[in-house]
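Input (structure):
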């Protein structure tokens, strides 16, 4: 029976340096990644305080505890991207032994998350796999998926939810997920400037519209009707808003940014729809006090909407179980 309330869901792309190594050097971004080690316990305290249900879509490589542990799970069939730097197997992993392990190995963080109620651990692929990039293929993606499932299983996790890295959703690969027991994934906002694309296809106009949309309503609140969850045998929970982190350069826009998010949440609560907030823990690895204060304002607004409209916090698996069509 359809329930009469809106849903607030939070999903995290949990990846440490695996998800950013092809874009940023450790010198450029290492502080953000190391900050994750203090962000995660702070987030979990917020989640307990405000009863936030969250899906942590975790990169499989990050779920190991050392270089030696990683070797147990790396697949023999690996992505053959034309742009070789996209693959961590090309030269990154072999040269990573000398790096600070906190940049790469987060098994103890996974254990910490597992101890907190209402937290789901899903998959963000094993290697931060790019499903729309040139050169790779479906067999390589399946090998990566099976590696992610294996390391998750070793951590006591039965993977049901999936988030495509960089939102590179490849419809031709969905059968691989289904074959491996995954039937829930995060979709993109239902508007042209959020459509899935390769990195090289993300044009200036698309990015400009996306940027504007963080601060003012551009066409839509990006909420999702509960009746729209089911899609070809999958539960697709569309993104509504990436939590743009604090920036000193545009701090004067923070009030607009917060107002935009609150308006989206309120619309979802009043209309019994889904508002889906997402980000990476490393996004808020620096300027932690400002980022976490901003996030707490969102959670306080959730509490207000929960009391006034019965707005409910659910993780991705709970949405599928409680609201997806059987």
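Output (sequence):
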């Amino acid at each position: 029976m359809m329930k009469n309330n809106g849903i607030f869901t939070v999903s995290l792309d949990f990846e440490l340096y695996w998800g950013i190594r092809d874009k940023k050097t450790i010198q450029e971004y290492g502080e953000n990644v190391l900050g994750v080690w203090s962000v995660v316990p702070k987030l979990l305290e917020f989640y307990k305080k405000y009863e936030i249900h969250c899906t942590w879509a975790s990169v499989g490589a990050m779920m190991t505890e050392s270089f030696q542990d990683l070797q147990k799970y790396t697949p023999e069939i690996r992505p053959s991207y034309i742009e070789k730097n996209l693959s961590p197997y090309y030269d990154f992993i072999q040269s990573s032994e000398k790096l600070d392990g906190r940049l790469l190995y987060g098994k103890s963080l996974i254990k910490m998350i597992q101890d907190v109620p209402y937290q789901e651990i899903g998959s963000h692929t094993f290697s931060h796999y790019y499903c729309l990039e040139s050169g790779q293929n479906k067999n390589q993606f399946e090998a990566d998926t099976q590696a992610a499932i294996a390391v998750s299983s070793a951590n006591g996790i039965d993977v049901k939810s999936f988030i495509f890295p960089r939102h590179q959703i490849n419809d031709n690969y969905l059968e691989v997920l289904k074959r491996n027991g995954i039937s829930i994934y995060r979709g993109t906002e239902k508007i042209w400037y959020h459509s899935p694309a390769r990195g090289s296809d993300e044009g200036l106009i698309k990015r400009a519209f996306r940027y504007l949309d963080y601060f003012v309503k551009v066409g839509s609140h990006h909420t999702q009707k509960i009746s729209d969850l089911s899609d070809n045998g999958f539960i697709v929970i569309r993104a509504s808003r990436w939590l743009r982190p604090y920036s000193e350069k545009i701090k004067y826009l923070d009030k607009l940014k917060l107002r935009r998010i609150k308006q989206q949440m309120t619309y979802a609560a009043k209309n019994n729809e889904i508002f889906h907030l997402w980000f990476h823990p490393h996004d808020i690895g620096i300027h932690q006090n400002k980022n976490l204060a901003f996030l707490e304002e969102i959670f306080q607004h959730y509490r207000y909407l929960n009391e006034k409209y019965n707005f409910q916090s659910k993780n991705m698996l709970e949405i599928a179980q409680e609201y997806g069509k059987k």
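Notes: The mean pLDDT is 93. The first strand starts at residue 7 and ends at 14.
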